[in-house]
User: Which sequence fits this backbone?
């Protein structure tokens, strides 16, 4: 063999050895026949659920129905029951804080299920602090102030209704299940009402009947509670 031939054979042997040493087991994807080799396992990636951006839809409108019970503080056993409805407009000021303007009212419900002659109407400005805001289930604490009127259905005079108006305060807790724009909620509230604006000069009966709870002297302040269930639409 000539010197040139020996040099060529040596070059081929050195190149083959370097290629074999550089090849790792993970690079073995098959042999000359095309048979598959060993493939490194791939990690399993589990996508995290999306986080709800509660500030994306900051406005909400809600409608609730339920029951409201109130009695004089001087005679707590003299309760008056009402079936009430409430319409609320809410604004999310921060991720946890929500402002609410709510108006509602309803008619007295007697023990036999029929309607009485008394009705209630209320307007409240409230603040809610929400917990677990990114969860489908969230809950809140609330407090609000406003005005309320408890009077006979037969009273239509504006001056009389204004005299029968009482300041009120509310404290409550609520629970909500939210989807995207739609949610269902339940709220339990404690309600306190102050004295009538018109004072208590004398008891006033309507149409010769007994005076309603809101106009019997001197029943000073009232207290009670409400339980409502409703739906909310976020936009």
Assistant:
């Amino acid at each position: 063999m000539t010197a040139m031939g020996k040099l060529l054979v040596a070059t081929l042997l050195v190149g083959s050895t370097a290629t074999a040493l550089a090849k790792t087991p993970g690079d073995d994807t098959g042999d000359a026949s095309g048979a598959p080799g060993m493939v490194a396992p791939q990690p399993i990636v589990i996508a995290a659920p999306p986080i709800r951006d509660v500030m994306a839809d900051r406005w909400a409108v809600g409608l609730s129905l339920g029951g409201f019970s109130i009695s004089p503080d001087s005679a707590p056993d003299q309760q008056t029951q009402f079936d009430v409805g409430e319409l609320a407009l809410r604004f999310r000021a921060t991720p946890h804080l929500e402002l609410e303007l709510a108006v509602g009212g309803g008619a007295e419900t007697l023990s036999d299920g029929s309607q009485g002659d008394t009705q209630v109407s209320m307007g409240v400005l409230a603040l809610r602090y929400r917990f677990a805001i990114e969860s489908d289930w969230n809950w809140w604490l609330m407090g609000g102030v406003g005005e309320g009127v408890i009077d006979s259905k037969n009273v239509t005079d504006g001056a009389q209704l204004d005299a029968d108006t009482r300041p009120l305060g509310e404290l409550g807790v609520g629970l909500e299940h939210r989807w995207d724009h739609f949610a269902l909620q339940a709220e339990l509230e404690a309600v306190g009402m102050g004295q009538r604006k018109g004072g208590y000069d004398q008891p006033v009966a309507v149409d010769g009947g007994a005076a309603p709870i809101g106009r019997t002297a001197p029943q000073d302040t009232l207290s009670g509670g409400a339980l409502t269930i409703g739906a909310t639409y976020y936009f």
Summary: Confidence is low (pLDDT under 50) at residues 202-206. The chain has two helices and eight strands. The first strand starts at residue 59 and ends at 72.
